[in-house]
Structure formats: structure tokens, C-alpha cells
Protein 1
Amino acid sequence: MQAIDLNCDMGEGLANDALLMPLISSANIACGYHAGNKSVMQYTIDLALAHGVAIGAHPGYADKVNFGRVAMQLSETEIYDLVTQQIFLLQKIADASGTSLHHVKPHGALYNQSANNPSLAAIIAQAVFDVDTNLILYGLSGSVSITEARKKGLKTANEVFADRTYQPDGSLTPRSQPNAMIETPAGSIRQVLQMIQDKTVTTPNGTIVPIQADTVCIHGDGPHALAFAKHINEVLQQKGLVIKSILS
């Protein structure tokens, strides 16, 4: 029976985390830099443990004003420290809760920059590797985030999105552009099924792009996050897919 990981960005101070958690298999928890704080991290870890959800660090730029979605130009050392410090923060709370981290997924602008910048992707991969070689690096499907992490010897997960549209080069449509977001549960599940079953995704202009889906992301801060998660969870199970986290 085919399995698929369903992940969600969480711990960002929004009210729907408790409702989303039973519907997913992996949680990417903000580490206090772009959103959240220690108490929110603890609360989110507790929720994940209660529902058997894999726990991952979601490090982003230290920019709560812009929610970590504005690109920054930092030195290699600054990027390395940015990532390691956030993983350690969440790891400490996880350890105290009797659990461990499963994966790391960069957030926002850091994620998007590393998807097409080999040097940045390599620094992030090195930071993750140096913290724990068993951590899985979640990155944009087919991007240099994946290839650079594999070069470092990390296990990777090709991530696809249930609520974002794609460009012909396989990148996500920038949020500043029209049609960047999928607005209906029907549109979301149609794209998710295509990515899982056909290993392709259709862009807004009709281009069909090859894609690998190891894990499907729903943005927890999206206006339709809960509706999307419920519908995707239900339909995937109806199709005979098992929703479970990736084995580390």
C-alpha cells in the first residue's frame, strides 16, 4: 500500500494547530525566529506527541515583522549559525519531552533562496548534518536543496505543495504574482493527486512539469489550511494511500 507524508508548518502562533495536527503526519515547528517562542514550541511538540506526528524544526530568518518571507543576505557563518541555533532550540525542548527531532525544513525566504542557490543549500545541509546526521532535510522537489543535502550524506524528502502553484521550471509561483495560491479544496486535491499519482504538476499556463512527491505540505497559516487538510486527508485515504511520516 502506497504511503505519503502530509506535513504542515506549525507553531506560528495560529489558533488552528490543534485541529490540524490529527490530520497530518509531520509537523514543521517554528523555532522562535520568524514566529513562535519556547512556550509555543512546547505546546506544539505536546500536540504532535499526542497524535503520533513526526516533529521537525522549521528555521527561518530572524524577522517576525515579515514572517521570515523577505530574503536576507547573510554570510555563510551567519546562515550556519541561524540554522543550527534554531534546531538546537527545538531539540532541547524535544529532549526534555522525551522525544527527538525527525526532520528540518527551512522556512519562507530561506527555503526559496536555498532551492536555487547551491552555496546556500550546501551551508544549510552542513548545519543540519553537523547537528544530527539522522535528520531528514525537507526541500523543494527536484531543487538544489535536495541535491546538496544528498551530497552531504543526508536523507532527503522531495516536498510538494497543496496550496501553491508552480512555474515551468518547477519553482513555486512567487506570492507577489497572480494565481500563486490555490484557493479551493477541489483545486488543492486535484493538484495533490496529480503530483502523487502522475508525478507531474500543471502550471497556471498549462505547462506539465515532472515532479517527485515524497511529502505534501499545507501551510498552517493559509486561510484554507484546515479545509484543505481535512479534504486531502479524507480523499487520500479513500484512494488507499496511507498517511505516515517518512522513515528516518
Note: The longest strand covers residues 3-10.
Protein 2
Amino acid sequence: MPSLANIFWLGTKEIRSFAHDYVLVGLVIWAFSFAVYSMAQSKSQELNNASIAIIDEDNSPLSHLIVEGFRLPPYFRPPKAIALQDVSRLMDNGTYTFILDVPLHFERDVLAGRQPALQVNVDATAVVQAGIGASYIQQILTTQIANFLARSERSQPQRVSLDIRIAFNPNATTSWFTSVMGIINNVTMLAIILSGAAVIREREHGTMDHLLVMPVTPFEIAMSKIWANAFVITIAVGLSLSVIVRGLLGIPVAGSVPLFLVGVVIYLFFASAVGIFLASVARTMPQLGLLYLLVSVPMNVLSGSNTPIESMPRALQIVMQASPSTHFVSFAQAILYRGAGLDLVWPEFLIVALIGGLFLGLALLRFRRISAETN
């Protein structure tokens, strides 16, 4: 009980110290508010208000139906009619991203069972928009031509009907994914920075010597820093999910937020231990920042929050199973996107707890050694 009391009161000291460090407070507020919002809005992979022009050389009911198919905001702006000789000039000056050319006698050839060609000119300066837009154009053309043939007496009935159902994100909206993954990546970043900065701050201010001559152990000092910073980050994550993700962005959360926060707390013991370990190696904040980049960036990039684990090389998949960040992303997606309960995610919780506990033990051993050298 005296040890728990020491950990508690030292933790409250850390929270008060954090509250007076306005730079770190600002970093936490920014990471879970403006950073999440900007990530959700700026990394959109959907086609939005793309400029398109159409050269209607056929001027037939089918070509008019094709033109109407592109009046689908917010994917495309209302299509503009242009002349064939203006294509090169308008593409060169970037007036239109897509220009569709419907050739003469297109409807006649379609009804005759021929395979006439449609030309789509694409400005691939913005390569993501160009690729997605070309796919959308192909889908719209296929749909409109099929609808036209369905009303024609010369058409053959379709033998196969494709019914696509998208689960968990019906409109495949990128912001639903990037916003939550931004929170997850920032959890790792802030847990390492806050816990590491707490140790570096003690050493730079000379208060580490004062703590070591008090009737407290290095274990109690380290654990107080871990729980205090974990408490701050957990509160920030909960507010970010409620205010930014659900409120401002209007993104639904399918699963239990309290269950997700329990997983966050478990993961934070690992991430905070990483911060303490790096702080025991670094001597100054700039050194801690450099070490953070070497550790945190690979953890975030290879955790599955940016690229699915299944898309990585097999050897890399096996290696990343030893990182708690991979399992953190896995159960976060299962809970928040698919509404999974404890009965499904408890193995991930257990793996994170075991790996985190092992690394926490290594960090505490390193911290004790540094404390002994300081003393």
C-alpha cells in the first residue's frame, strides 16, 4: 500500500507538471483535434467535383443518356460540351481533368452488336484522382449503356446480375478510416513523447536527484510517469472520438468506446515504457526526438494503419506480429468499425499486455540502472 500511494502521489505531480508545460499541452490538443480533422479531410481518396467535358459527335438518345449519367454530384461537375479541336488546348491548360469523346454513329454500332470505342482523355497530374475518376467513368458508361440496351428490343437479357454489398463503410468514405487511424497513430506518438519528456525534464531540471534521495524506488518513479501520461492520453482519446470523430466529422462508431479505451490503456503501458527506455538512452530532448523518429515511424507505418498487413511481404508480416502496435490497430479496427466485443478481441488484448509487460520490464531495468548511476 505505501508503494501504491507513492505511485499515485508522484503521478499527480506529473499531471501538474504536464499542465504547466504549455507546449506539451498544446501538442496534445493539436494531435487529437486539428491533426485528426485535417487528416480526415485532406487524405480523401474519393472523387469530388472533378471537371469533365464531353464531345458528343453522335448526338443520339444514347449519347444524351451518357451525358445525363455524369450529372452525379459530388463526383463530377456538370459536364460541358466542347468541340473536338479544343481538346488539346483545354487539356494543356488544365481546364478539364477528363474529356470524353462519343464518336459518330456510336448508338447505331451498339445496337448492331458491334464494339465501338469511346475515347477518354485523362489529365494524370493528380494521379490518384485520375485513376479513381477513370474507374468511375467506366462504371457510369457501362451502366448507362446497359440501361439503354435493356430498353431496346434488340438487346439480349442479362444472364448474370452482380450485386455488390459493402459492409461497415457502405460508401467507402476514406475519412471514416483516416480519422480513427490518425487517433491511433497519435496515441503512439504522444505516449512515447510525453513519458520520455517527463524523464528528460527531471534530469534537465535536476529534480531526478531529489526524487532518488526520497523514500521512493525507481520502479515507483517510472510507474508514476506511466500512469499519469496514460491517464492524460486516454482522456484525450475519448474526447477526440466524441467531439471530433462523432461530432464534427459525423463519423459513426460501431462498437463500444469504453472497451476501446480499455485497450488503449493496455497499449499505453507498452508505448510509455518505450518512451522511458528511450529517455534512459537520450540525454537531451533533441536526442529523444531523433530516437523517437527511428522507433515510432516504422511502428506506425507497418502496424496496418496505413497499409493492410496482408499486403506486406510475408517475412515482414511475421516480424510485425511481435509489435504491440500491430495488435493495437487490429483490435481498434475490430471494435470501432465492426462492432466487435470482448469475446472477439480478448486475444489481441492479451498479446498486447504480454508483449507490453515484457518491454515494460526491460525499460524498468534500464531506468533502475540509470537511476543508480545518477545517484
Note: Residues 342-374 form the longest helix (33 residues).
Protein 3
Amino acid sequence: MTVESTMLIPVDAFSHLPMLVGRVLDPERSTFRISRKTFDDWDRRAQEAGYGDNWRRTHEEREASRSHALKGRLGQDLWIFAYGSLMWDPAIHVVEIRAAALTSFHRRFCLKVEIGRGSREKPALMAALDVGGECHGLALRIPAHAVDRETEILWMREMIGEGYIPVFRNVATPQGPVDALAFVMDRQSARFVDISPEEAAAIIATGSGLLGTNREYFDNLATHVEALGIKDKVFEDIRASLPFNANKVMTG
């Protein structure tokens, strides 16, 4: 069976970036293609770990956020700006992928979490879009007929708890600018930390939770970003302060 026949993202989606064929996971194979039933297991695990009933937004709160952000935009194609795992594991059906640059925001490890890759005893840092600079990533286009369904899945992934704000921003691509949805850091959130690369490295080196270590997350993100041909100084700045094997980046 050929790669083309098994791919659920159409081959045409890669016309601008053919080097990405085989590097972007099919949505239906992604563990992030979740449903409300997935939360039953997550709620159980969160309670067992002592996080209580309020560890996440309710379904109603999350859907209200989605409705507000997408008001007037259903019925038309929707662009998503991807800067992290959405680039290689989008978990949503898209029909076009472009190289993209978002100005006035940069990739930064400034979202502190105590669940997932972290815990209360060993918190973790996740990547987010913080104000200032520029971020290079990908622009993903969801076709109009699938926007409602696919963004419901996207919100379950990105808007589980506080930390991100969904905003629309002008994103530059080689094929022309697009108005894209981006999930940026909420600086008013208690999860936002304004710390140096050295301080970030100390947290990343020790963070650990139900989903694994913060170090694994950092190395995996760095590996994939670099494999896509994107250079970002944030990784080198943090690696310089990580333990001695930090420059041996994971390939998985």
C-alpha cells in the first residue's frame, strides 16, 4: 500500500512543502484526536493524582470560548498558526499547509503546568507564544465544511485549562498573508512565568508528571522544529543550561 493511499491529509496539502510528506501524522492516528469520552479517563486520572474536580474547564466553558472566538467565521475556511506539536501532529483534518511567520510573538517556555508533563512537586514548562519578536511555524487550512467539527477537537486539546488566549492575527506566508487563529500566552494567567532561560532550564530538567518528563517534551519539540528546517534560539539558550547531555537531541 502506498503512502499516498493511506494518508488522510491529502497529498495536495503538501504542494508548498513537499518535504513534509511523511512527517505530519495522519489525524486519525493521533492521540490528540480526542472526544468528550476521553475526558472521562482524564478526569479519573486527575482525581487519582489529587487534582480534584476543577483541574480543567467544563465542557460548557470551553465551548463558550470556542463560540466567542469563531463568531462570524463558520462557513468559511479557517487558518491555524502552528508553532509546536500542531506542526507534526495536528490531529485535525487540513487541506493546505504553508510555511508561516507570525510577528509580535515568539516561541517561549513560559507556561508552567502541574499536570501532564509536570506535577505539584515537579512542575513543568510548556511552549507558548509570548509577546515580542517573531515566530516561524506552519499555517494549516481547515476547509469550511469541517471547521465546526475540527475546531471542537482543537479546543479540547488547546483550551483544556487556563493559559492560552485564542486570537486572530495576520500571518505571513510565501503564498501571501492569511488571517490565522493562534493560541497565545495569557500573561494574566497564574500559569505564566517570566523567567530567564537558565531558570527555565532548571524547571525543564526536573519536571515530571503523568505523561512523562518535561525534558522529553523539550527534546522532542526541539527535534521536530529543527527537522522542519526552523531555527529558534530559544532551544539553544535553554540547552546551554541543561545537564551535560542536553545537546544530544532525541530523534523520536
Note: The longest helix spans residues 214-227.
